[in-house]
Amino acid sequence: SAKKQYRIAVIPGDGIGKEVMPEGLRVIEAAAKKHGVAVQFDHFDFASYDYYEKHGEMMPADWKDKIGKHDAIYFGAVGWPAKIPDHISLWGSLIKFRREFDQYVNLRPVRLMPGVPSPLANRKPGDIDFWVVRENTEGEYSSVGGRMFPDTDREFVTQQTVMTRTGVDRILKFAFELAQSRPKKHLTSATKSNGISITMPYWDERVEAMARKYPKVKWDKYHIDILTANFVLHPDWFDVVVGSNLFGDILSDLGPACTGTIGIAPSGNINPEGDFPSVFEPVHGSAPDIAGQGIANPIGMIWSGAMMLEHLGEKQVADAIVGAIERTLAERTLRTRDLGGNADTTACGKAVAEMVD
Ligand code: NAI
Ligand code: MG
């Protein structure tokens, strides 16, 4: 039978995005080869300051034709604030992908890796291992609202939360499916129905309705205030945590922060139906302060590659990469400086590639 070949759009972007991307590609290539999976990379230079400098825009007008048919987009980082304001660079690229490719799931693992010190006392690898699922298109981050009577005593502003049944149900379905696929089969919902008394009770109602379709999944809910406290006090309680756009935004920064450095955290912006390609990228940005020195940690980029392969259905390849990351991090000398090691970006990437089995 004809072997499936994945087509990946590769966009390194700015700063350390350009330095960590080759390591991500190196590891994917090594893992794909070992597991007999065919991956084709198509490289694009847009969504970067260099492109903007030449063309006066972040992306070509036909960017959707160029990358819209790929199986996934592998993205480094965008932003060069000394030369271009962030609202132009990010809204001209990354935010367009998220909106126009309807990437309504933002997914981040929260996992304590060997050799990475946690800011939480007495936690060891295995203690913290869960996913944060954030609604990525609606909710609190709506454009419904406005300002009236500016500069008068009557001045007021309003911005309305928008929750649609379609939008809420599809993120909950994704989260319940993920929980069902995991050994613990446990879902936690972030709410605040005691204070936000219209939209959050609605969210809770949809969670209850969705839960009935997943009888094997145990579920609970916490108000967002105590939930953030429990991330810190009891990170071992969680398996899959789902939240609205605002709550998910907070939790998806807090969670990875509890497991160490920004240099290793990966993320996915996902369109689960596959109507459009999903974007996989490290959580960190272009890090202008260390760009050009070859010292950036490539693990966030590499781990994002593992998430991408898992999304494409290649769980074995993904697991092989995550295992190689774990073994590399466990060895002090193979880590980059942000983790107290002495490897540079390339040495760390090569080490992970060699550890893949
Ligand atoms: P940043 O994540 O680029 O850097 C924050 C700090 O973490 C810096 O001190 C940096 O050196 C360090 N750091 C980040 N990644 C690292 C790595 N892989 N290895 C070692 N150290 C690392 O965030 P910052 O400085 O706020 O933003 C810089 C630019 O990146 C801005 O233009 C911002 O808008 C953009 N940005 C883009 C994102 C994206 O493309 N998704 C996400 C976050 C920021
Ligand atoms: Mg955030």
Instruction: Write the element-wise H/E pattern from the N-terminal end onward.
Output: EHEHHEHHEEEEHEHEHEHEEHHH
Proportion in helices: 25-40%
Radius of gyration: 21 Å
CATH first level of the largest domain: which class? Alpha Beta
3D shape:
globular
* Chain-averaged pLDDT: 96
| Tally of strands | 12
CATH superfamily of the largest domain, by name, is Isopropylmalate Dehydrogenase
Give the N-terminus to C-terminus distance in angstroms. Answer: 25 Å
Oligomer: single chain
Helical stretch count?
A: 12
Order of strands, main sheet, comes to 2-1-3-12-11-4-5-10-8-9
Content of β-strand: 15-25%
Q: What low-confidence regions span 5 or more consecutive residues with pLDDT below 50? A: none
Name the ligand types.
Answer: 1,4-dihydronicotinamide adenine dinucleotide, magnesium ion
Structurally, the number of domains stands at: 2
Structural class: alpha/beta
Largest sheet: 10 strands, mixed
What does this structure look like?
With 357 residues, this protein is an alpha/beta fold. It has two domains: 1-107 and 265-357, 3-Layer(aba) Sandwich (Isopropylmalate Dehydrogenase), CATH 3.40.718; 129-258, 3-Layer(aba) Sandwich (Isopropylmalate Dehydrogenase). The protein has helices at 17-34, 49-55, 63-67, 86-91, 94-100, 165-180, 199-211, 224-233, 245-257, 299-311, 315-330, 345-355; strands at 5-13, 38-43, 72-77, 105-111, 129-135, 145-148, 156-159, 186-191, 218-223, 240-243, 266-270, 278-282. A hairpin with a 7-residue loop joins β6 (145-148) and β7. The mean pLDDT is 96. Magnesium ion (MG) binds next to α9.
